Backbone:
């Protein structure tokens, strides 16, 4: 008998253009895991509105992001791909879980001042995303680890009160590319809101090369991995290794005795070659709106079926009267 596959859930906010960070930290691993797991990959538009979005841009990005998922190699036949707001069970379970989450737990998540309550309670919605599908594994970049851990705590607490209800999820953090740093400031994370330090997946080759040639390094001209003392070079080495599949030792050997004038453009080239087919394929798929609509509608209906199973159990356990 065929063994039941374990479940994966992950998502990305359509709050900006996809970046090299979102590719290396998340999507690349989604592609690698899609054959061995039963996967749901989401476009989390409800998370995106925790900060103000332009409506037309949000709508366009949400659909284009699906095109990019497919262009990266996610097979719509194998995976359930959908838009979060099309599955209202996320909001419904989010409300319930908020009643099993302490204010203090949310206060400990890293946040700036002056935020909406939606942004404050965002980790609860993320927990609902994951727990709705009885998820075993959540492939994400390092910055999301704390949220998956909070999700486990909430699930454990709920299970403790009502008996086994939720599968406890584990984060899956890649060895290479879990935290791609800004090319302009290698001590802070590459983020979509920093155009100079950030490589976008849809950037043209000449822009990618320019950004890498300008990447901040150091002055000892030695290509060696040392996160403490050489954050810029270490970041470029990680990017190069994630893009080419080489190990750090192989890359250090390859560039031994060569200056940054050789190394930086070589890293740029590796990223250009990585992203070129993805960009071309994305552009092709983005033009086919009917195809994309078919996929996200089908995805939402399959996701709703699974989500309902969990939500009705939860509603029964907590004492909501049957509909
Ligand atoms: P988001 O949209 O900020 O980022 C999407 C994914 O990309 C990873 N990532 C990075 N990885 C490495 N280096 C970087 N510089 C980098 N920047 C982004 C993130 O770790 C993430 O995996 N809360 C999530 C979205 C979410 C979610 C979920 C994820 C909502 N519900 C349920 C998993 C499961 C977020 O804001 O990711």
Residues:
């Amino acid at each position: 008998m065929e063994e039941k596959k374990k479940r994966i859930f992950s998502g990305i906010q359509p709050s900006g253009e996809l970046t090299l960070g979102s590719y290396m930290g998340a999507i690349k691993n989604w592609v690698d895991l899609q054959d061995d797991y039963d996967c749901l990959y989401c476009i989390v538009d409800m998370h995106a509105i925790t900060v103000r979005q332009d409506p037309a841009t949000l709508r366009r990005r949400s659909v284009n992001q699906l095109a990019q998922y497919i262009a990266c190699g996610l097979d719509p036949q194998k995976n359930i791909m959908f838009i979060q707001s099309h599955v209202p069970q996320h909001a419904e379970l989010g409300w319930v879980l908020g009643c099993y989450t302490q204010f203090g737990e949310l206060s400990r998540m890293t946040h700036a001042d002056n935020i909406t309550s939606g942004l404050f309670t965002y980790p609860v919605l993320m927990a609902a995303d994951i727990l709705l599908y009885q998820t075993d594994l959540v492939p994400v970049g390092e910055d999301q680890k704390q949220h998956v851990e909070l999700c486990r705590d909430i699930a454990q607490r709920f299970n403790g009160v009502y008996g086994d209800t939720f599968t406890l999820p584990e984060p899956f953090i890649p060895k290479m590319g879990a935290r791609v740093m800004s090319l302009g400031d290698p001590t802070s994370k590459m983020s979509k809101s920093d155009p100079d330090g950030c490589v976008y997946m849809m950037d043209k080759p000449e822009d990618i090369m320019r950004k890498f040639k300008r990447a901040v390094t150091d002055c000892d001209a030695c290509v060696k991995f040392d996160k403490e003392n050489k954050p810029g070079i270490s970041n470029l080495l990680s990017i190069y290794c994630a893009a080419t599949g080489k190990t750090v030792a192989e890359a250090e050997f390859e560039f031994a005795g060569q200056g940054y004038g050789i190394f930086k453009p070589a890293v740029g080239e590796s990223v250009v070659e990585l992203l070129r087919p993805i960009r071309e394929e994305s552009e092709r798929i983005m033009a086919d709106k009917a195809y994309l609509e078919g996929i996200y509608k089908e995805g939402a209906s399959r996701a709703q079926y699974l989500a309902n199973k969990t939500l009705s159990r939860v509603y029964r356990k907590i004492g909501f009267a049957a509909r």
In short: The chain is about 50% helix and 5% strand. The longest helix spans residues 289-318. The mean pLDDT is 96. The pocket of tryptophanyl-5'AMP is lined by residues 9-13, 21-22, 24-26, 44, 47, 126, 129-130, 138, 140-141, 143-144, 147, 178-180, 189-190 (CB under 6 Å).
